[in-house]
Amino acid sequence: MCGIIGVLGNHEVSPLLVESLKRLEYRGYDSAGIATVNNGKLDRRRAVGKLWNLSDLLVHEPLAGKSGIGHTRWATHGAATEGNAHPHRSGPVAVVHNGIIENFRELRAELAEAGITPETQTDTETVALLTRMFMDRGMDARAAAVETLGKLEGAFALLWLFDGEDDLMIAARKGSPLAIGHGDGEMFVGSDAIALAPMTDRITYLEEGDYAFITRAGAEIFDAAGRRANRDEQRIDLGQAQVEKGGYKHFMAKEIAEQPVVLADALRHYLPATGLNLPADLDFSNIDRIILIACGTAHYACAVAKYWFEEFARIPCEIDVASEFRYREPPLSERSLAIFVSQSGETADTLAALRYCSENVAKTVAVVNVPSSSIAREADIALPILAGVEVGVASTKAFTAQLLVLAVMALQAGRDRGQIDDATLAAHTEALRSLPGLLNQAMGLSEPIAKLAESLAEAQDILFLGRGPMYPLALEGALKLKEISYIHAEGYASGELKHGPIALIDRSVPVIVMAPHDRLFDKTVSNMQEVMARHGMVLLASDAKGLSVAGDGTWATLQMPEIAEPFAPILYAIPAQLLAYHTAVAKGTDVDQPRNLAKSVTVE
Ligand code: F6R
Description:
Blueprint: E1 3-8, H1 14-23, E2 31-38, E3 41-48, H2 51-60, E4 67-73, E5 88-90, E6 93-101, H3 104-113, H4 124-136, H5 141-149, E7 154-162, E8 169-174, E9 179-182, E10 187-190, H6 193-196, E11 202-205, E12 211-215, E13 218-222, E14 234-235, H7 251-257, H8 259-270, E15 289-294, H9 296-313, E16 317-321, H10 322-328, E17 336-342, H11 348-358, E18 363-368, H12 374-378, E19 381-384, H13 397-416, H14 422-433, H15 435-443, H16 446-456, E20 461-466, H17 470-485, E21 488-493, E22 510-514, H18 521-533, E23 537-543, H19 544-550, E24 556-560, H20 568-587
Parallel strand pairs: 15-16, 15-17, 17-18, 18-19, 20-21, 20-22, 22-23, 23-24
Antiparallel strand pairs: 1-4, 1-10, 2-3, 2-4, 5-6, 6-7, 7-8, 8-12, 9-10, 9-11, 11-14, 12-13
Helix pairs in contact: 1-2, 3-4, 4-5, 8-13, 8-15, 9-13, 9-17, 10-11, 13-14, 15-20, 16-20, 17-20
Bound molecules: fructose -6-phosphate.
């Protein structure tokens, strides 16, 4: 979602602000803007659409100054127009904002009573108007910002800049992350460390409720109660913040290709030669229920893991989408373990679900890609998936890395509960260790898939079918395809086909069947035959054995390496992702930043 950058520098900041915003493009946005203070004078430039529109504008209407803030906006309140783009300004105040001010209607009413009328449809403008109102009443910038903060409800990250103040930015965090970067006589603020990576590797993360007065001399940080707070300065690994395409046409292609290495790294950490390696306080022996909660692709990773926890540990396991779970307020017990899966670690619904659980279950566990994220910090135990920065909006390497960590957890649960014998455990760990090699082999399908994708790109609707743990993968395959190619796609459990979706089948509907030759294979083949009997266009992804039994009569086949049954979804994620990727490329869509989507969904 929206991205924030702020610089109190020693050089002209406009180019630096735009460059930093480029690093935040991956979060998704539909307008952008910057504001600077030059010799005490505040000014701003904003443009709708891609950042090059803002860059073009700055060529014709440059903005001087060594202090500035910038923003990429993903529209929530009000359309993507220049007027609604950030920074929002009122008199001496400019502000950029991530998140939502939930009580902005009440605040607007309060402003109206004071005779102040907003000019935009946004919630953010309210912040600028309030701050100005307090300054008009005699407060200085610092006091006015703090007074404004006291009035705001919701989840937000804010950064203010002021007319007449060349050496001041005010930052605040409540619900949306914000990082302060330290330079030599320069200071920076970013909505994540990626934005700051070229400028500094010395970062201080604001904590929930913190606000900070930032000058070139440093940052004074205060907690929610207004007390001075000491927050650690950390050195971040700049390698981890690399966001280069590395010769690939798209980040998504790079991230798909990275998966063998990502899984090898995660295996080294979680499954070293000595065996399962999870924190000692993650103990499944006294648990009677597991709840897995997430959104989108991460939810499908949970749905696969349900099969594993039930099979390996024989423990009841529920899965839920966070946005439903949080408002359903389900009964919980002190013998439940709740697992929250999130690439970004900032997804608003998942975070809210975690907060709902935190007092009421035995333990909360976060499976995240960003170890400094809110979800990682608020859970009792955080397990990093070690996938490195994921830039493509469509999650790929995070999905398979989440699956790997969840598989190791399920095996640990089986062992803790005495449900898995040594030989089976050894066979499963061996199978997991073979994954990097197998994923590498599957990457060889990229070229044939690119050819098939030319036909798939013509389709209006595409169905994905799978059984057992391949069912959630069918859901994930459909999600991936629809989000980046904009082709309508649905995933179904193969057995559900004749309960409705078979009505859709005709010559024009490709049906993608993900089916390793496992114990349910024959059943899936029967469902596939039903599709072919109705002239459906079947694409079967299976291993050599599966294809020799069932490949005849299909429209196309993809030969996959053999894989131990439970872990097939990790391997088959590769063709699912490649099908989506190449179809989107064939259609010419914006693969890395598909329309309307944001990478880190920090609003509900
Ligand atoms: C789809 C995708 C989304 C995310 C979802 C949750 O490709 O990326 O469905 O999986 O928005 O995001 P995180 O994992 O950051 O909580």
